[in-house]
Batch of 4 targets.
Target 1
Amino acid sequence: MTRPAACSVTDRAHIDVWREVYDHLYRAPWGALGEDFSGWDSSYDGSPIPTDQMREWRDTTVARVLALRPERVLEIGVGSGLLLSRIAPHCTSYTGTDLSPVAVETLGERLRAERPELAGRVELRTLPAHETGLLPAAAFDVVILNSVVQYFPSLAHLADVLTTAVSRAGPGGAVFVGDVRNRSLQKHFATAVARARGVPEAGLPDAIRHTIAQDRELLIDPDWFPAFARDLGTPVEIRLKQGTVANELTRYRYDVTLAGPNRPVIGTERAARLRWGDDVTSVEALSHMPDVPVVHIVGVPNRRLTGTGPQLDGPAGLDRSVPPGRRAVLTWSDTGPEAVDVLLVDRRLGDAVVVTCS
């Protein structure tokens, strides 16, 4: 064990505010275990995000974690057990921590009542993220922080927590950081919110500034993670949120996986690099790619944001046009915040973490 990460008085005050918010939220009646989406409300009109969209958000997140083949999981910010209920059955042990004692107590009661078969493998603890260092090093193989880091007080705090999380996952483990809000798209998001609320064009600049100023969550530019990972000597994979519906979760958030130094990864430094619009002009062309392990297609318009370019997900999505022998990994593009890059990876390389940034 190590000492908890440093936490200033200001940071503690920030964390205490969010603890009170979630204590209040979790005192309300819960839905079925793994099906409670209380608090997931639309930024556009304040109504609950449709349940089918939230289930897809949960299920695609679970799929990404299970692809890491977890056996001994630590979830920081376990909440109401949305992920735990789906992932714990596949694990030998599952430790869930949360800063809210109400969440931990209520989730424990629900597990004992509804999923008693998990009691022997699940441990719940009231523990804020910056005190993760109190847990044993290398005791887990996958550490999860899903839809959590936006409530951290600063990037410095995030760096401290992630450094500890990587040490808890050990050299062969992985840290999954899900549902990260994209700072480079904050103005785009604020504009969409203002228009959805009926703000006239003349009033947009003031409305956008107001929305940004009132946003108290931590938004993170995708470029921050590769810089952090380089300092730590950790490979990193950054992926767009998966989903068939273009909503605020799939448009403006992303997932990150930090791989331990001994964990097998798929490198992309020797990928065949093609540019969308020049070398590749349609999704049909994806079936005629160079015969190399990884093809990197640069600068594909993000249809979720621009309304142009190929469909990314769904029955007619780009991922359905990929040849059977490859899988598609979608990541943010250096060519601009409204573009994505597509990595076509030979399936014979397995489902290991793909190093999207070097």
Target 2
Amino acid sequence: MNSPVYLNRISSFLPNSPVSNDDMELYLGMVDGEPSKVKPIILRQNGIKNRYYALTKNQEITHTNVDLAKCAIEKLGFSKEELRKIQFLSCGTSMPDQYLPSHAAMVHGAVFDHPLEISSLAGVCMSGLMAFKVAYMSILSGNSQNAISVASELISPTMLAKFFTEEIKHKKEIGENPYLAFEKDFLRFMLSDGAAAMYLSNTREADCCFTIEWIRTFSYANKQPACMYMWAEKENDGTLRGWKTFNAKDIEEKSVWSLKQDVRQLNKYGMTLFVDAVETSLAQAGIDTDDITYVVPHLSSMFFYKILEQEFQKRNIDLPTTKWFTNLSSVGNIGAASPFVALNGLIETKCLKKGDTILLIVPESGRFSCGTALLKYV
């Protein structure tokens, strides 16, 4: 039997002050100088009231992605001497500050003053959970005695109105309605910036901490084409055409670089596949739902809250909403960092008892993946 891996510390960092629904376009700007027509509809559906941007109202960046990760690590409360004892760093994000060097290398250089092993995980929302799993497996396998895992996102700069200027200009020139396509525009009112950091080790270092019982991840890319994509365009047959096949003019005029999501595909297939992962995880672990105290589901929108509940009921998975915890409406959807920002919120607001268990559910619509993790309060 493997020795336990402990989650000893967790922190989250949200930049600047919360931004209300009314103030969003003061930070993001208005595309073509006009308020978004889809904004009221999207905000009504997603249930988000506040979010955080690493931006000023002049559309200036206040924190890089590395800064966000660094701030979250600093909030773990380690001294410089304690940080020098960290052996492994894993970082997950969908929005690094640059393609190269790796995000983890940049975080390493910003935070630590000693050599250590690093790992960068890419993807969308599951990249944070995968970074957490790599840190967990490093300790479980004996590769390291401890690790810090970070999930961070800096998405707001990619949603600034100024970056869509060429697309709108081109639409006017060819006589099209000068509006952003829904699959681009609605995401501008869904997403948020922030980070979370976790400290894991092979020893218990606090009176109250968590054991990581298991982390399971599933990809369903064999069943569906891409659903959320960036630096690509989706063809009629569902395949992606990557940016390297476009000329520079097309990249500007079609905003090929922008984040997009096929909402119809997500609504049709997403929840079924995501609950498949939960059902399989519980079966593989041989755990009864009665033994799960809390559920932290990563929901991109409160629109999916009822749909997830109904899918659980349809399959006789007894995880009622009375066990659920989400802070989506108050912090927004922070992508890879969201599950851990929510976990930290649960820990700070609930009176946990020894033996309580927390099930994390982390779906990703990129090409349909889902991960689960079970933590036990000890």
Target 3
Amino acid sequence: MRDGIIKRGRTWSYVVREPDPATGRTRPRWVGGFPTRKAAQAARDAARHALNRGTYVAPQELTVAAYLDQWLEAHANQVKPSTLRSYQEKVDLYLKPSLGSLRLQALSPSRLSPVWRELYASGGRGGTGLSVRTVEFARAVLRRALNDAVVDRLLEVNPVLGSKLPKRDGKPQHKTWTGEQVSSFLGAVAETRWAPLWELAAGTGMRRGELMGLRWTDIDLDEAIVAVDRSTTQIGKDRVTTSPKNHERRRVAIDPHLVLVLRSWRKQQAEERLAWGEAYEHTEGWVFTWESGRPLLPDYVTKNWIKAQQASGLPRLTLHELRHTHATILLRAGTPVHIVSKRLGHKDPSVTLNVYADVIPEDDQSAVQIFSQAVWGGAS
């Protein structure tokens, strides 16, 4: 052996002395499989340099699947249950099937970029393609996981950062209803049990989880204000309540029509409580409940929303697109972006601008007239 390099069979290996975290002493680490002495020497020199800089990462056989399992388990108590479930779905559906068997340390940007393209082209059910947004989310989960791998000294750099996503074909367009279409839908469902839920969703732009997390103590009908302080998601068959998305608690004004709708709904609930007596389950003041007082499950709300649209004759929307509808109607009518952003609970108005830039009126001529009037009194 010369300079810590030796030939074993047809390949070359090198040895370095790495620190043992348990004892603080150094120990030999053999790394092999190099096709030439020169390749082994280059790898040895890089390892020695990393050891001197304190950035050395010991070679491991840990697979991507095994690491992601460890990572999810470590984060179980650090993120919201809904966030953890979303991470788990992306890992199970997309990351493990595509990358799980690979060694964690074998990942590279050039290995990951084709994976994102394959997911976009055929990563869905039955070989159908995925949306760019879904692929972006899967990539974001892996990026976050591998950031932690760098901190834990399992990787020297995060290979996700240099990988390339499929190119977006323009900015995604939100499917929404007009004000007339919203009015038509609400008229069609006016006699159904969950009409107040759809009215409040349309009139405030609140997210599904925020609607499910509402208690009557959050609603001041005299002041026409709804306080958004929590969000309820569904894990299995259980409701799980946490803070709103991005922890953005807010107060949302409602109009006189919604005040009347909610007063009527609260009266109906009170009558149901009396009718059920001691069997009534409603003990925490939830706004949206069954006749027995049992609070609604969020997943049921999504299913019922789809069913509620069947007889409307309107373009089919997801419940989240009703939130987009609320924002779009306001922005097209000229409501300032920062006001809409506050109503929606966005972290910053720039988020609202980015999401809804395509619906904000571009009235350059009006801007010219306003400036002209202010400076020159309208003279041309």
Target 4
Amino acid sequence: MILTNIPGVIGWILLYYAQSATILCVSIIIMGFNVGFNFGPTYSYIGEMTEPRLRGIMASLLSMAVMTGSLLTFALGSMLHWRTVALVNACCPIICICLIAAIPESPIWLMAKGKNDEAEKAICWLRGWVEPETVKHEFLELIRYNERSKTQVDADSEGGLLKKLAYFKDPSVYRPFKLLMIYFFVAFIVCIIPGRPYIGKILTEVGVPTNQGLYLIIFAALQGIGSVVLMVVVNRLGKRFLTLLTLSINSIMLLLFGVYTLVLKNNFVSSTPWIPLTILCIIYFSGSCGVLSIPYLLTSEVFPNNCRGIATGVCGGLSNIIIFIITAMYLFVENVLTLEYTMILYGLVGIFGLIYFYLYLPETENQTLLEIEEHFT
């Protein structure tokens, strides 16, 4: 995780000194690599070092940090020059490096390397500098999980990349992997991720041509608030319930948005800006409360230990590819279907996701990593 933050420092500094479009593109590409590099180890570490009762809260804290960072960047951008914002943001990965250097390695990773004594010390540190006797039960459970996952000494180094990719033939890997890929696709659709670069165009089309910058800040703020709500309630309500609830809300809102746009364009109603704005606010808030954030939480816990790192990284990379593809296709889809039917289509995708997750999404909250792995085996 220390190494993965270095591209972030380089990218923001390049952006600060950029004097041409080429340097701007290079800096954005480097920062894109930084996001991708961070995804796998960060969520893997959270999944491995937290207790089952806290895993959802800790993983949702990461989502909240992302939403908060976006909001602060929007706010700073409205007050400061963009170069100053870039310089401020360059400090974030430097702070991350300093903080990460102070925490221990994952206990499960240490066990996989045969360093059980160091793993026990790491658990004691992570649980609040307690005595080994206090974490004895958890330590023995992790040893059993390590043996069950067959991740003894040098297991990760044997066979290299090809062997790690071969893990995806294992049902305990490809079943959660398939579930997550479908989840990411549905979540991005029902939260209108493809339309975000064109949100100004969408607002203008539904009769909200002014104050769009303010509305973008409001949307970002609602996402941040939603991620805080998720962190508070995920342990009590569970990821499955929150998925079904927020997916239902977003699907209904998308269908309503499509119907409103349809009747507006056919002059059945006059332009009423508060209606589309309210719908979009609900979509952004509801999405960050559940369906948009939960797939990232699941990546930290659904894969077996012997391939969690690479499986989580592949999920993160493919999720970004999905975003790229559906965003690149958005204007084409809207030109073919028009805005109203695009939103209705997105709502129908949400209904498909609702049925699929009702049938196949397990509850992982408060479950041990071993219990989750056994479910998918």
